[in-house]
Write a structure and sequence with these properties.
Eight copies of one chain form a homooctamer.
Chain A (H helix, E strand, L loop, with lengths): L2 H12 L5 H8 L5 E2 L4 E2 L3 H5 L5 E2 L5 H12 L5 E4 L3 H10 L4 E3 L4 E4 L10 E6 L5 H13 L3 E5 L8 H4 L2 H6 L2 E6 L5 H8 L4 E5 L11 H8 L6 E3 L5 H12 L2
Parallel strand pairs in A: 3-4, 7-8, 7-9, 9-10, 10-11
Antiparallel strand pairs in A: 1-2, 4-6, 5-6
């Protein structure tokens, strides 16, 4: 339930179109529904503009389905990240309109179209192996109504590949830079654009990469201004934040 | 030299008001001036909207003064971070209008007023000890033309102090959350607003704080959406990014 | 064998009701039984008020069964943690009264009811994924005779879910706060109650969570007073300590 | 302002002995006083039973004095930790009754005597070098009204020194075990008592001690039940928690 | 080939009992045999008193067999550590006298009995779970001719179990202390004996144990004198060194 | 397309032997071919003298085949590292001349023979277990046209094995030193030769090896001059760099 | 008071030469003297063969003097490590026979000559900078009655320097290998001798040495058998253990 | 004494121009001079082509002077790194020709000119603050006879500064890339040249830079081929290795 719907409700109450009891009924899910194992945060849409996203990792299939139902049955869109094919199959049985992006591991159920028309978000990756994380970011941003343009495998080892796509990158309102190994992409991109760059370190690599620590530290120490960092492999976080900024 | 000035110059050339030679002369500093020990990036204003900021740490007083002169004499505003009182004294001798924020350790020389009127940036700190970093963020954002409102010492150990200032925080277009020790502030704030939160871990604390590592990890792992992180104690980076977002 | 039984024995010896030889016989298990691969610490009940708990991880099924028998056949209650279903099946064959909590991975055999009536222990978790650890704490505290009330999925990203349960939390004599990811829950809870808070970091999360390191450091650096920390995922330790405090 | 005083006030208002305006006046400091750089948490006494303690590290002398005044002038006791001699001198000028424990680095101003008579807290250290942290714990616990008995330099390298003091240790209601280097003291003590043990790792040591990391990990991994851990060198935290438990 | 055999050979050459060519032939394997993938160090027995031990981890079954043959066919005893059952089966086909200790994961082939009669080595463990590492140490020390006495599951959480075996421990010429989790055993044992203590940290534990790091740091920081440390889980190294010392 | 071919092309255009359109056609792949998921860097051969090498880890079989085709169909040699047998099977179906080194996990397709005749590269390993990494280095260097001589299992624990091969090592133009565990090999070799030593730490070992961290730090801290280090297990990187130096 | 003295005392009591009261008086210091801030472990000489050594770091000058007096006045030798010149001056005023080794930072007071004549201990260092730690080891071993021979600056970067001193090293009964930076010395020495090698990592170095971590890991992962490790910079520990072994 | 001089000497002996005794006399310093605290490695010039370089850190002024004399009096050039002004002053008194580079902290004494004419080495830095390390590399390479060209402050945040100097960088035979903070420079440079790149991480930065760890990991994980890494701040090592490669 977003701010508009809420105002609408109050106006209707004021105008006598909706009884107080009915209004209370509609609102009673607020601020959260307690499923026992989970408290679904319905209030979030009011507070943050988008309903709670389901982080599926270390949840059971049943838990995921139950939370999906709770959200979707209120007419809200559903975005589930880190979802397994098995979870998707179970959700699909209930919601035929559910869609799965295998690489991104996301389930989406669209109850109402959302569309931002401010501009687009660019998602750039250092290598082919960073695509899974980039796709999670892309799916998230799209689910939140943004246009997304991707530039994959444009790492700094062959920097002309990056420059060949500079127009796409510089034309975006927000840039998400996804890179593993040494993660230098974020600094280089950060130096080339005048828009916020959200850096996503990935765990892609080996040896002294230490599961993404290397790229993480690189990005935190970026000598370019305008770069901030989210958790390793956190494509969702980057997509969500990019959308938040793009809406401004 | 920003985009407007540049267009202006080209228009004047076109109109015959400025000779080609003169135009070239004005532009010859582009893309950078080589001072030997430093290449001042004059192109940055064009690329990123604000001239190069001087990071004074591990530079000599003479180097800082030389870079200040190079920037200011082109009519650009100067922002120098991590500046010592000694550096300020030396700069002050040349630029009487230079100002020093002792807690923030910033020198500012204002050549032309900049003013954004989109809304304000909120800077929140967990404790009194985080103020130095918060002030660096504040000074940076102000130097870039933003209005800033501060809420200091509102950490989660006495969470009613945070709630008492919720209006200020929720009214901002961007929030900078500065905290040391366990750094939980960013997650709590992130859960309460629908605007981007830039988290700045500080090295304030002791023991298992490990010079800011604790707060850094906390913030990177934030379970709240819309939170991204900059380097430990990087008030400047937060202020710069916040300004970039606020301009959108 | 607890203090009361021991006094009782001595009194009986004194009164001539039990011969010295018999008394010695009953006590000969003290201070421990040597099973070769393990020395079952029968003395612990005297020293610490509860018989040795079996930590099943990296023990064989046979070893677990043997230790269960050793403890139970002296009439003591059994609590086995980190037990696999296979271990439970083997124990169940011998002790029909044995019970298994699958999520908590605990086996309990109750030989004598224990009941504290001082008040209850609250177990709060940040997310659904922290439930396994919370259940281990809960099972442990219950096995030691405590009443336990749980508040699951009340993390700080939607802090109103925590406040909605504040009464339960503030009414407890001891609070166990279980959280992964950034672990901010412990600090927030610690600031809201005037009772000891036992913080349990969990390994739930990914990336810069580093298998629980993030939550661990957060909790150790808590700016709230009255918070202490046990090992990552150590639900048992928290439940045991909470019971010890609740008995005071 | 504690619960009793508050009830008293309400009763007086009810009885007409205090006017509503006066009552409001007395309460207006609640929940905190905003000193600009700090928000003194007056509400804490109500919430947690003791007024805010001043953590002096990285505060200026003026800030410490100002907070002391704010607390003491409401008739509350003051406890300031990590205080320098300079801070003490400045506080002493205003409050002649202020006292300084040089080793503990604590300032105390006693406005009203508090006294718990439940039993005593034992503070045990591994070595002479751990005394500073132990004294901070001791001073804190005493300031909160507890009796404290200390057993210093009783580390496990000469374990008979520990056993010689076993009666003192086992007689306590809560034990604080303070140790640096390898920190084995907490485990050994934890195995010998049936009361909560609060382990405080210290940064005492060298080399692979890594500023207390060694003792910290040891204590977190303690194989003894009933042991929980606070931050490295956090004597205050241990003393505060011990007092909280001792009051139960 | 050890020193005695070598002197013998030279004496026989001198006495004309062995021709120079034959002598050269017998020695030609020295200093090593090159198997292509491995250079078997036959010289080691001369240099260090025992032929090369085979570290099987990350070797193929064929490689292990080939090295076994190379060593055994010179009449030397074979000790292979970290050997899988599969490796044992393959070796057993060639050497019927080969023996396997499943817990220790060692293969031994005895070509000539070795026997030290100086005294015995004590192997003490903190818990049942440390037995695999302890057995590796025991097998190694026995293979090198030492008497070994074991005291398993005598950790500091129930320190009376350790004291009950003090005589065995104090009677040894060298003590090997094997412990995981917090590893405090080494310090306590080190303080009780006047003989060298070889500490072996194990990776047994979870959470902040960090795969043995906790026990490793504890042991390195031991406040007891006479304690030195080998690598995590390095039972072989401890057994080898203990034997070296016991021979003195 | 290397520099010679390029000059040739321009000469032919100049001489009218190739039309401008044809020339453009041949060059249009430059600087890279965009396969969607990957941008194959054809320009690299010009820039760095050898076409892009395929790093197969975390790529799909289809992606690897597609990139192989893209490179080989331009007449360039193919080197694919970290290739699985499955990848090899798929590539083999298209390119019968493809070869697989199982230990090195490399696929090579030779389109044109390359041969350097400056001298040879020596690859030395500390143990048998380091061979996989050494073979990757060897295959890489050979694919780039170098003669390679290997000295395997020559670690410092039996240093005479190293000295027995000193001539081979000192005769090389570049030495690659591959070692796990403590990685001391690089320092010892570095002190014995007057040629560049490329040190490759391997993840071989256990315990405090921490997946190669130990060998990595050892090599970075080498007290021998002329030693530089590549990533843990990065045989390819060492072979590539060695070839680059050998060509000088 | 060592075993001989003790037996002597009992014999004298038996023979009536010493009254029981006098005997008790002489023994009453056992097992320790409580100085308040320290419990001097007089029992250690009986248990471990040498009286307690004073670790001066983070003790005050007064504390050091008091402990010296306590030990020396019983007729025991004193060894104080990590002693400052100031401490020495204060001790010297009371004990004119006190001696100071500035590089080793040790104070020694000799009350009775001790002399082992089993053989000598060799102390080898990698570089000149490791001498301080080596001297601490040397002084300790000498104070305990051992002959010590030193080979300084014989690191592996110029390995012929080591071989030139091989006779000295191989002739020792125990070898102490002291090295910073990459610490490869211990492995090389360990491969060359058939006696126990005690490895002492030093904090000498910079960068990725991380204050001795590099050398520590190297030594723990030593591929040579017979090597064990003490804490970083722990010359005392090495000297003490070497003496313990040499006495066997 | 290099190979030429040595051949010369032998020829003279052969020709009777130098007596055997005199020859022996000249050679007796080989392979090293033992100064007690240091063994000066005269053999190194023969083995590695350049006499031992003095690493002054943690040596005394007297030790540095003594080693300088030992080297220089044999007619060899001297290079001393990490030298303090005080050391220089002491050396200058004896060798008037000694020169000091304050930023690089190097002392050089030139006894014979060395000159390579193969090509030049490029030294590139990310920022002004990396200059000290770059100068150490430069001084070292020059002392070894190389031409060096520097490109300072060309970091990736303003990548056009790098491209403006591409010709200088691409024209070099070896490139040294010096960078702190995120160290991305090495990857970008590595992707642009076909010559070996020696990456030197510096400790310049703050926060999550962790004293150079960030840049170190970045460089080790470089996705560009042909990049190898030396220790943090190890300008000398880079210069030495670059010279070694440039001589090929």
């Amino acid at each position: 339930m977003d701010k508009n719907k809420l105002s609408d409700l109050f106006n209707k109450v004021k105008a006598g179109e909706v009884s107080v009891d009915d209004a209370v009924d509609r609102l009673k899910g607020l601020p959260f529904d307690d499923l026992g194992f989970a408290k679904v945060d319905n209030h979030r849409k009011l507070r943050q503009g988008y309903p709670e996203v389901i982080f599926c990792q270390s949840k059971t299939v049943d838990q995921v389905v139950a939370i999906c139902e709770n959200i979707a049955h209120k007419g809200n869109n559903v975005l589930a990240t880190r979802a397994t094919p098995k979870m998707y199959a179970a959700v699909k049985e209930i919601f035929v309109e559910a869609q799965y992006n295998e690489m991104a591991r996301t389930i989406t159920i669209t109850k109402e179209e959302v569309k931002e028309d401010k501009g687009y978000i660019a998602v750039v990756t250092g290598g082919t192996s960073d695509m899974a994380v980039a796709e999670e970011a892309t799916e998230t941003a799209k689910a939140l109504g943004n246009e997304v343009r991707t530039v994959y495998d444009a790492g700094v080892a062959g920097i002309h590949r990056l420059f060949a796509n500079l127009e796409t990158i510089q034309g975006a309102r927000v840039v998400i830079a996804v890179a593993g190994m040494e993660g230098a992409l974020a600094s280089v991109v950060g130096g080339l654009v005048d828009k916020p760059v959200i850096a996503v370190p990935t765990s892609v690599g080996y040896g002294a990469n230490f599961n993404g620590l290397s790229a993480l530290l690189t990005m935190l120490n970026s000598c370019s201004s305008g770069v901030s960092v989210v958790n390793i492999d956190n494509g969702f976080g980057a997509g969500y934040l990019a959308s938040m900024i793009n809406r401004m």
